[in-house]
Amino acid sequence: MAFLFIDAAVGKETSQCNFSTWVILTIFGDMGDLLDYIVSETWLMTTVFIVVCFIPTIVIIYRPFKNLILARITQITVAGGAFAFLMYLAIGPDGYALQYIGGLTNGKEICLIEMHYQGDGDAGYYEVYRLYVLDLQTGERVSRTSVESQELLCVTANTAIFFERTSAVAYDLKSGEKVKEWSKEKGFENFPELQSGISDLNRQTASYQFKNEAWLTITAKNGHQYCYNLLTDELLEINYPPNASEGRFVFNDYEVSLQSTHQSKEWYFDFHEKTGEVKQLVYHTKNNTEKILEGEYLNPKMVAVYPDHRLFIIQHFTTVENTSAIFTAVTFEQQIKWRTTQSDLQASDHFSDQPLPGISFPINNQFITTFGGLVVLLNAEDGSIVWKSVQ
User: Fold this and answer.
1) Across residues 4-21, what is the average pLDDT?
2) Sheet holding 152-155: strands in order across?
3) How far apart are CA 256 and CA 252, in angstroms?
């Protein structure tokens, strides 16, 4: 409802409406921040609970109206409102971000999936998921939405698409509302090839590699198989989605390599064990020669590669608990370009000065990493901070 009011006010060019817009933005913005603070602070949540429970008691003891009917209506309304408010706090969507477990970008916005804990109304909690949409240029939050699944398939120009149970669902990036669904029953009305009906609907995505690619695999009731591209709205009569071009530079958690035209490796970097969980970075040439580079890496993994800058980034840690991260950028010429630590980034969120490291992935020529509810965007070339955003 807040978006509807704001849009309506902005559409009028009067000073009165401009003032109304400012008031609404202030109220809704401050209210959201206040509810996040209340829900996330145990002492404040307890205080609010006691105060709100005490309000109906006052209204019952001290009747606000002499008329018995008016007094009873007021008492019931206040008691019901207090109960509804407390239930909303207990099982509602508010609260600061705890930890991000997935993410993708469409080049303009960053979509992050957060694992959160929500009350069940019976003194217990269960895991839920929320979609955070941040502006890539500024880090400011565009929207926050509770979602039914953590499986983010892809991000289009205006929506984030999830797979929920047996269907794909698109959420609007700005309003957070569900705007489209693809299932066996609906979503493919424009494709006469599927008029016979759908017997099986599944998905295939590269989001686990932080790549914005996703398909729905479909078996029609007439026996034909199709693949539907969620990003381009194309339906192809093929059994499996086509492999996207990897390019000559390929990386996974353990290796960065330059592929030749014959699918062999021109060179590659990987890790060799030094002692315990400590690894060393090793450079290999196509002639099978090896060069052990200086430095030690505890529990390392490759998290990004940037061919234009001729470097890749390694995430490793200061202790075996993996509670404090280090990021080291290594050039293709086997030199350390830059290094930054979690302490250097002054990474803190609403809960801790040392939040746990979360996800890390490349975005164009930049690098995103998270710590608890903190999101940090770095310049991949020199490791400098572009922006930090605490949710």
Assistant:
1) 36
2) 152-155, 159-164, 167-172, 178-182
3) 7
How many other CB atoms are there within 10 angstroms of residue 4's CB atom? 9
Residue 375: its H or E element: strand 374-379
Rounded Cα distance, 205 and 223, in Å: 23
DSSP codes joined into one string, 120-140? -SSS-EEEEEEEEEEETTT--
pLDDT at 263: 67
Asked whether the predicted pLDDT for residue 19 surpasses 80, the reply is no
d(CA 96, CA 45): 13
pLDDT of residue 137: 94
Report how far residue 201's alpha carbon sits from residue 299's, in angstroms, rounded to the nearest whole number.
Answer: 38
Mean pLDDT, rounded, of the chain: 85
Phi-psi region of 294 (alpha: psi -120 to 50; beta: other; left: phi over 0): beta
| The pLDDT of residue 344 is above 70 | yes
| 134 burial type by CB count under 10 A (0-12 exposed, 13-18 middle, 19+ buried) | buried
CB under 8 Å to 139, separation ≥6 — which residues?
A: 375, 377, 386, 387, 388, 389
Query: In terms of pLDDT, which residue wins out, 225 or 87?
Result: 225
Mean per-residue pLDDT, 102-121 = 86
Reply yes or no on whether the pLDDT at 92 is more than 70. Answer: no
Which residues are paired to 292 by β-bridges? Answer: 282
Tokens 């929320």 correspond to 130
DSSP state at residue 309: G
* Structure tokens that stand for 175 in this block: 């309003």
Structure-block tokens of residue 282: 């090793």
Q: Is the pLDDT of residue 28 over 50?
A: no
Q: Which two tokens stand for residue 128?
A: 């839920």
Q: Which two tokens stand for residue 124?
A: 């217990």
Average pLDDT over residues 159-188: 95
Tokens standing for residue 116: 């959160």
Q: How far apart (Å, rounded) are the C-alpha atoms in residues 376 and 364?
A: 15
* Range 187-209 average pLDDT: 93
- How far, in Å, are 111, 129, 199, 267 from residue 224 at the CA level? 34, 35, 10, 43
Of 309, 294, 300, 307, residue with least CA distance to 270: 300
For tokens 């250097």, the residue is 344
